Structure formats: C-alpha cells, structure tokens
Amino acid sequence: MKLDRRFPAILMARRNLDRNRLRSALAALGIVIGVLAIATLGIFGNVLQLSATNELGAIGNQVVVGPNQDAGVTSLSAREVETVEQLTAGRGTAVPLISDGAVVSNGRGQSFATLYGISTPTALFSASEGTIPDRHRQGALVGAELADRLDLRVGSIVDIEGNEYRVVAVLAPTEDISPVSPDNGVVLPPEEFVSDEYNQVVVRADSGEAASHIAASVRERLNAREERVTVFEFSTILDQIGEFFALLNAFLLGLAGISLVVAGVSIFNVMLMSTSERRGEIGVLRAVGVQRRDVLRMLVVEAALLGTVGGAIGATLSALVTAGLYYFTPVTLAVALDPSNGLYLVGAFVFGVVVSLVSGLYPAWRAANEPPVEALRG
Q: Are strands 140-142 and 163-171 parallel, antiparallel or unpaired?
C-alpha cells in the first residue's frame, strides 16, 4: 500500500499487531464497547430530548395571564383584558375566558364538567365532530370525554343549571399540555355566564420570542404600580425539561465514559506486555541505528491503529442501533437523522482514539528510552 510505503511506522505497527491477532482483537474490543456505549447512550438521551421538544414545542408559544390571587385580585377587569389584547395584536392571538363548574345532564345521565366562556373558540380548539363557529354566540361545544360519557352527538340537547343547549360540535381530544383542557368540559358563549369578568387570558403567540415579548410587556403595563396579574410563560416548562435531559445525558455519558476508561487500561496493559515481550527486537532496532523517535512513533501508531479500528467499529454499530430505534420505536425519521446525533458518533470515535493514544504513550516512551544494551540482555 502507498500509505505504508510513505509511512513505514504504519507498516511495522500493522505487522506487529498481526503477530498476535487475538490480543490485538481483545484490546480493540474494549474500545469498540466503550465507543458503542458512549455514542449509543448519548444518542438515546439526545433522541429523548428531541422527541420531547418536538412534542411539546408548541406550548412554548403560550402565555397565560390571570389575576394575582395572593394580592386579593379574583378576576381580570375589562381594561386589563383589553390591554393584553392590544399588546398581543400583531404577534399572536389573545383569548379571554371565563371558567366555572356545573352539572351537565342529557336525560340519560349526568356528570360534573368544567364550563368555559369563550367567544373565539377556534383559536384554542379543533372539532372531531361538527364545526366550531368563528364567533361563539349560541349552542355548546362539548369535550371528547364528556361526550363519550353522556353519549352526546352534534344536535344532542344538554341541560346545564336549568338551561338547555344544543351541541354544535364535539371537540377533539387534547394531546398536548395546554392551559385549557376541554376534554371534560363544555364551552359556552361568555354571555351565558352570570359574571362578566374574565378569569384568565390565554395568549398564543406566533413564536417563542413573541411570547416572551408579550409576557414582559404585560408585566410592565399591568404590574407597574401593583402586582395585579400573574403571567405564566409555558416556555419555562420547556426550559426545565431541557435542563432535566441535559442532566440525564451527562449521567449516561459519564457511565459510558467509565467503560472507555476501562478499555484504555486494557490497551495500556496490552502495549506494556507487547513492549516487554519485544525488548530484544527493540534493542536490535536501536543497535542498528533506528532512532529513539522512530521506535516511539511505531509503538504510538500501534495504539492509534487499535483506537481507530475499535472506534470505527463502535461508531458503526452505534449508527445501526440508532437505525433500529427508528424501525422499532415511535421515534421519527427526522429525530433519528438529526445532525446532533452525528456529533455523538464523531465525538465517541475521537474520544476512543485519544484514549488509545494516551494509554499507549507510556509503554512506548519506556521502550524507546531503554538503552539498547540492556534491552538486548533481556
């Protein structure tokens, strides 16, 4: 091979490793296991974080403004609701709502449900049956669980506190974290409620940055003199989830790193044994004029070859395991092929080569610096 002719140290290192293939294979196997563990566990943690972020990413655009009950405020005034709507304009949608609870019945059964008074329900909900009106002026929107429990369909009549409402739509089940959970609720026009004061305003911004800007503006305007409202940004949940997965990833990588350190000790032992057995050979090389640095280079290359071969096999196996994640679990192709997963493969491979080099340095240095006469004496 041209590479071997240009770099004779590689040729000699390959021949030396071939002379004891079993020992070389066992040393490389340690690197294979270490790199496989680091890359695979790192990718597992990364895939979990990416999947959770994708599933919950939409909630980062939501902000909930409510009365500060700790300060004795029980509802939002019309002026406060109007201020939130003005600050949201152009950056998202603000949905003021009234909430309460009541017994809902339809003649065949009854159930306690949460009542929501919302005039623009299309901003928050979608329908699995029927059509949600853009402006909610009459009729009831029924949550999926409540509809199943009371066997409600579009056109059914429900009785709420003595008033009858026709069901105009059954809401789709909620699958994401949301400030409003209508599965066991009924959405009515706000005019149907005795109180005309809103309990909260749900803001759905166009982006996470817009949500943060709206939240800061609301705090500045409505809490300037007195802290009358609470502002909750759902992006804080994503931040906490991100911190948890970062900690989990560090823990998994730490465990995997231990296996690679063990592999490094194995290579150190193999190189030490190899140089001890080859003292005479190394002494002859030094006696015929081979320079100390050439002996050092040859032995270091042996360690590097072990790390390179073991790291490449380990990274390849880890890539196959990642492909298995896509085929045998609900992980999406976009998550499995995310570039950040490749960083774990490359990082684990490089780490494996570095550990091999570091493990081979001392045996190589000791062999290269032993006087030829003492080496030939054995």
A: parallel
Mean pLDDT of all residues in the chain? 83
CA dihedral 328, 332, 335, 337 (to 10 degrees): 70
Q: How many residues does the chain have?
A: 378
- Give the tokens for residue 67: 């009365």
- In angstroms, the CA 101 to CA 99 distance is 7
Coil, strand or helix at 130: strand
Q: Is the pTM of this model over 0.70?
A: no
Question: Tens digits of per-residue pLDDT, 188-204?
Answer: 998 888 877 888 899 98
CA-to-CA separations, 47 to 40, 314, 336, in angstroms, rounded: 10, 19, 7
Residues 76 and 67: their CA atoms lie apart, in Å, by 6
CB neighbour list of residue 355: distance below 8 Å, 6 or more residues apart: 31, 34, 260, 261, 263, 264, 267, 307
On whether the CB atoms of residues 335 and 54 are closer than 8 A, the answer is yes
Phi-psi map region of 177: left, alpha, beta (phi>0 left; psi -120 to 50 alpha): beta
Q: Where are the beta strands (DSSP E) in the chain?
A: 62-67, 92-105, 110-117, 127-130, 140-142, 157-160, 163-171, 185-188, 200-205, 229-233
As a whole number of angstroms, the distance between CA 151 and CA 105 comes to 11
Interior CA angle at 136 toward 134 and 142, to 5°?
105
| Residue closest to 310 by CA, chosen among 262, 272, 254 | 262
Name the 3-class secondary structure at 1: coil
The torsion angle over the Cα atoms of residues 119, 122, 125 and 127, rounded to 10 degrees, is: 110
Q: Can you list the pairs that 18-21 forms with residues at least 24 positions away whose Cβ atoms lie under 8 Å?
A: 20/274
- 279 backbone φψ class: left, alpha, beta (φ>0; ψ -120 to 50): alpha
Q: Are strands 163-171 and 185-188 parallel, antiparallel or unpaired?
A: unpaired
DSSP 249-309: HHHHHHHHHHHHHHHHHHHHHHHHHHHHHTHHHHHHHHHTT--HHHHHHHHHHHHHHHHHH
Q: Which residue from 11, 4, 193 is spatially nearest to 96, judged by alpha carbons?
A: 193
pLDDT for 307-362, tens place per residue?
Answer: 899 889 989 999 999 888 888 888 888 888 888 888 889 988 998 888 888 888 88
